[in-house]
Design brief:
This protein has a 4-stranded parallel beta sheet, sandwiched between helices. It is an alpha/beta fold. Helix 8 links the parallel strand 7 and strand 8. 49% of the residues are buried. The chain has 3 domains: 104 residues, Rossmann fold (3-Layer(aba) Sandwich), CATH 3.40.50.10800; 85 residues, Rossmann fold (3-Layer(aba) Sandwich), CATH 3.40.50.10800; 78 residues, Rossmann fold (3-Layer(aba) Sandwich). Helix content is 40%, strand content 15%. Bound molecules: 1,3-dihydroxyacetonephosphate and iron/sulfur cluster. The site of 1,3-dihydroxyacetonephosphate (13P) has 12 residues, from helix 3.
């Protein structure tokens, strides 16, 4: 049975039609936002979607700031608004432009790959950019023997396990506090409790968690796997918003959070009230502006990523 929309959701839908606004939402957004969004996806899918927007006068990007910045650079001049502009990803704080410059001095000529979860300033020092769904492919596409990689040391470990390219951490302490909360022992226990289940972890989880999981991949890959697989029970190690989306989409399947406290406070800064406020007032402070010096370089490195399929890494982790 289709869920009845709330008054505020109805208001947003009406106003977004009037404004010709497209709402893009990340998989970690609260369900009430996912329900009124025009497109929900992982960071790569959202970047690609924003490059292909036609017939709209504005985009509202419900996610964290660095994702909205990518949308603004790719949207062909369509203004991008973020409902709460304080939604900054703490993982991005681990690698500054200065830190990358230092590493480039230490490893001259070694290509720099940054994860999308970085500031626009840090990206301006990178040669390549990747998402969780494209990291292995991007590293292999470069064709170098070694690369500098950051800020996520766990994603780096995942890439290392799937390529012969030497992966040098820009900052070995870089991690996502949400994905650090998953515990390998807890996943082993859940697998014992649900022997028919398949466990899927995000590559921002620790190596131990990745190793006890059956698959490792982006949020987009998790959505695809649960939809297409014959398995009926899934243990999911990523932020709760995605778990709730999967539960809503697949009432016939059992979706078990590997830890139900895994909530990203930054993603959850976005609310229906803030989306409505932006639609009503088009506040200047919510308009995403990427300084030109960063925007041109960001476009260039995003274009380099356009060659990858980005459906992976869906490869199973070897036990
Ligand atoms: P995805 O690209 O897998 O959606 O990941 C984004 C993110 O921020 C994970 O924490
Ligand atoms: Fe950043 Fe982690 Fe939140 Fe993703 S889940 S936006 S990496 S803090």
């Amino acid at each position: 049975m289709k869920k009845e929309l709330s008054e505020i959701q109805k208001k947003i839908i009406e106003l977004k039609k009037k404004r010709k606004a497209l709402i893009l939402a990340h998989n970690y957004q609260i369900m009430e936002i996912q329900e009124i969004a025009d497109f929900v996806g992982d960071s790569l899918q959202l970047a690609r979607k924003s490059a292909d927007v036609k017939g709209y006068d504005m985009i509202i990007f419900s996610g964290v700031n660095f994702m909205a910045e990518m949308a603004a650079v790719l949207s062909n001049g369509i203004p991008v608004y973020i409902p709460d502009n304080r939604a900054l990803c703490p993982l991005a704080a681990y690698v500054s432009a200065e830190k990358i410059r230092e590493m480039k001095k230490k490893y001259p000529g070694v290509p720099v790959v940054v994860y999308v979860n970085t500031t626009a300033e840090a990206k301006s020092e990178a040669d390549y950019i990747c998402t969780s769904g494209s990291a292995v492919e991007v590293v292999e596409l470069i064709g170098a023997d070694r690369v500098l990689f950051g800020p996520d040391a766990h994603l780096a470990e995942f890439v290392r396990a799937h390529t012969d390219v030497e992966i040098i951490d820009i900052e070995p302490r870089g991690h996502c506090y949400v994905h650090r909360q998953f515990d390998a022992a807890q996943i082993i226990l859940l697998k014992e409790e649900y022997p028919d289940a398949i466990a899927i972890a995000h590559p921002e989880c620790s190596k131990e968690v990745q190793e006890v999981s059956d698959m490792v991949g982006s949020t987009g890959m998790m959505v695809k796997t649960v939809a297409e697989s014959d398995y009926k029970t899934f243990i999911i190690a990523t932020e709760l918003g995605l778990v709730q989306q999967l539960q809503a989409q697949h009432p016939d399947k059992r979706i078990i959070p590997a830890y139900d406290g895994a909530v990203c406070q930054q993603m959850k800064k976005q609310t229906l009230e803030k989306i409505l406020y932006v639609l009503e007032n088009l506040p200047e402070e919510n308009l995403i502006k990427v300084p030109e010096e960063y925007a041109n370089h960001l476009k260039l490195i995003l274009d380099r990523m356009s060659k990858v399929k980005g459906q992976g890494p869906a490869r199973a982790v070897k036990h």
